[in-house]
Queue: 4 jobs
Job 1
Amino acid sequence: MKRRFPAPGPLSRSFAALVALTLAAAGCGSGAKGSGKDITIGLITKTDTNPFFVKMKEGAEKEAKAKGVKLMTAAGRFDGDNASQVTAMENMTAAGVKGILIVPSDTKAIVPSLAKARAKGIDVIALDTPPDPQSAADALFATNNLTAGTLIGRYAKSVEGAKPVKIAMLDLNPGITVGVLRHNGFLQGYGIKDGDPSIVCTQYTAGDQAKGQTAMENCLQKDPGINLVYTINEPAALGAYTALKAAGRTGTTMIVSIDGGCTGVKAVQAGQIAATAQQYPLKMAAQGVDSIVAWARGGKKASGYTDTGVNLITAKPQAGLASKDVAFGLANCWG
């Protein structure tokens, strides 16, 4: 049975016009195709202070400008701040974005929000950190974090050889995919497993320099003989170096890390970090923007995983292990 409605009066006609304008601006809240400035893309990073995410934002802004589209940005207050990312996704969905690029802070907790956005026709692409499960996003543009960890693990093993080691593992946060992948990659590259007696201390740092320093101090209290330190990223590595320097252990303890940021590569140059695995956040962001724009303009939606590359950077290369020098690292840091 058809429902009958009264003829619209002036107020209802005004309201209808407002709704029509809102839907037009939002692309009807779905993946409606468009061109030019009617395309808006969202970018949500873990924080807006970590240099890695600062560079990612710069890459997205530059590419959005080049493609003639609008970019909305947001970030968590700290690494692990899922609530702020959920709010950002809701705000961007309400604003009518065609796609959202996100670096998940809590890779499990964000999944329902990703599902809601995708149900509204929004193209959701994860950058750097895969959600858990990875299929919760339409696509992933990221470093192969397992490979990154493997590279620095192999480097450390190449240097240390068969010598006995006491290892400190300065990790990210419990259960976060990028941290788990890097941790496991390091162990794989070094040729050991969790629980190996050579691992004398494991601490979480949230990828933060101050927390990395505290974690290293705690590990040195537990075992002053630590001579190899794995760190989740370079801020944590520099925090660890500060603690080791205060303890007079910099000459006997090797630090390996991941990121390849400009500050991190300079730390390799200075001998504070022995080697780092360089990744490319600007490339991740630019490719993510390009993918959403191409789909919004009638192309094919990206799916699956796109590897954005990783290189081992060191000032002291090891035979049989491919690496790039500091000059390359500085020329390509955050590229």
Job 2
Amino acid sequence: MKKVAVVCNYILKPNRIGGMDRFFKLFDEQLKEQGFTVDWFFTDYTAFDFYKNLTIYSANNTSVENKFIEVSCNHHYDIIITHFTELCTKFYKDIQTYNPNSYVIAVDHNPRPLEGFSLKKRVKKRLAGILYSKYIHQFIGVSQYTVNHILNDYGTFLKKKTKVIYNGIDTDVFEKRTQENKNKFIVASHLRPSKGIQDLLKALSYLNPKLLENVIVDVYGEGAYKEELQRLTNEYKLQDKVSFKGSSSKLNELFCNYRYMIQPTYMECFSLSILESLSANIPVITTTVGGNLEVIENNKNGYIYAPGDCKALASILENIIIEKDSITENTSDLIEQEYNLEKMVKHHIKLLP
């Protein structure tokens, strides 16, 4: 019986059950159905029911990489899969030291800075690719954008063992929008500067206050930038328009209460929030970064603008509010056909030797 370890630089939270959580759970179920045993390693985890059937090691006060090495000293794994970890580090050499002949798959979800890495960091990554890529048998990017950057960062010589597997979501759990919910907007995002929510607040401040009379913007998520975003909300006198709702494990039921999702991000790999919003038949207003353009088509299932262009975002919002522009197409069909969770899991299962 082959033994699989999945190492994830990811914190499990009962108040945040999202697309990756559902992937982890279904992947575990299907691996076990095929006769594999599976151990999971996460950055932090306190037991809750959603994950009750998974065997989980929590890193707690150390890195998830160190926790895996600690455990693997006494366990042999045939297949090792990483998610959200930095690629081409000494960790991958250590994997082979303690698990010789194991098959290693590295899944890259990590966005890149809009302005790119510094020269020093680019050189460092290229050297890391030369030194440590030989310990990884398969590189997976969650979008074509990600694959392009893996090759750009670590070397084009990795092309033969690098491929795209798009993220997918469980479309069955998302309630569909059935009414207009005019001028209600949702943001679902970690609260940090790179997510660009400060730009949304500035864009709203550009609009005529009369246009905002019936506008509601609900922000779901937590993060260290929350205090600054609340300060800006007060500065722009948007307290009656923008509400910070915190994290929610019920976003699959909440998206349908809105008309559009806004994601003004500066960094993105391939956004599960976008897929989730579209699955609920909620078009998306977002930026041209990362893999966004691989799923959002301007004026068809959303609106696209350049990151940081607050005036362009303000213009999009104004045209929606005055009903000059509107997305009428059902946005959920694309997600159900191309970005569903079963398809994602099936492709990941196919990777296993």
Job 3
Amino acid sequence: MATATKTATRKPSAAFMKPLTPSTTLAAVIGTQPLPRTEVTKKIWEYIKKHDLQDPANRRNINADAKLRPLFGKEQVSMFELTKIVSGHLS
């Protein structure tokens, strides 16, 4: 039996690529322009890396600075919590 090979490339979901408006708290970090979730995540990670906010002892944790503290609501979050926190700041 021969199996058919997939030649079509996978397209991202339209809902996934829909530009979302950041809250004022999130806008302080990434800007006020509506962006798809993928770009929001990308911009947050750019900010985290630019300001060296990953915990040196455990790189999975992100330390909050003055801009991220209101967004996180605490001093440190794990990278797994980050997605949930950011989702609450998009509409």
Job 4
Amino acid sequence: MDLHIKNIAILGLSSLFVLSCQSTTETSSNLTNEWTVLLDKNLSQWELWMGIPHESVKNLPNGTVTKKNLNVHGDPSNAMGLNNDVKNVFSVIEQNGQPVLHISGEIYGGLTTLKEFENYHLSMQVKWGEKKWAPRLNAKRDSGVLFHCKGDHGAFWKVWKACQEMQIQEKDFGDYIPLAGPSGVIRTATQGGKQTYDPQGQYLSKVTGYSHASHEPDYPNGQWNQVDLYAVGDKAVFSINSEVVMVIEQSKDKNGLPLTSGQLQIQSEGAEIFYRDIKIKALSSLPVL
């Protein structure tokens, strides 16, 4: 169901022209104006990449490399690798007759679409589970929806691809983080300090690290949240429970070239989480906000 998003002023939106939804890549041209469901019981439209387990993880195959500090960069050759989910971190269960993605969070990993997408509306529902794992036992529950993913697995922390991230974290739904080289521009109220999206802001800030959403409308743990990503050209809009919390412009890759398409990834990052009703459709222009 399309969202009627609350009125928020967006920089430059009045001058946006309609962009063609015809993809420049073979895979993303398959999208239509009707929803394409991305989740089934066999995860047939996805592949798995598992990172390096924390040293506290038990019952791993002999020879599995483990680490205490997982927040490291470098060669991902020691990661568990492609489709090697021996702990069943990513699985699909059935609730009320529909498939639900269950992510245990025990090992850092990414669920990645086999296809790339460009000019789309991605919709899903998300809620937290109870379990937390080292090294985030005392941290906020964390996950994330990664988009415009390019290149090899393991570019960031030996787990995730180079990408743009829509943060899914306790009290931090809709924050923005570019991973492993990309960047974007957001509107902020002041220069310096805590970088936060402000639709009325006077400054354009280039983001290469963490940037906070304008506000946090996510529901209490255990309740389903509606999460929507609108991506058209080099712009993206994050909507949480029908409220716009982040707008990115001038999305670029590590070489400074426009970043407008790529795979999708869903993170396992130390916390149990559930995703359902994951679907996508073509989008020719950003919605009127």
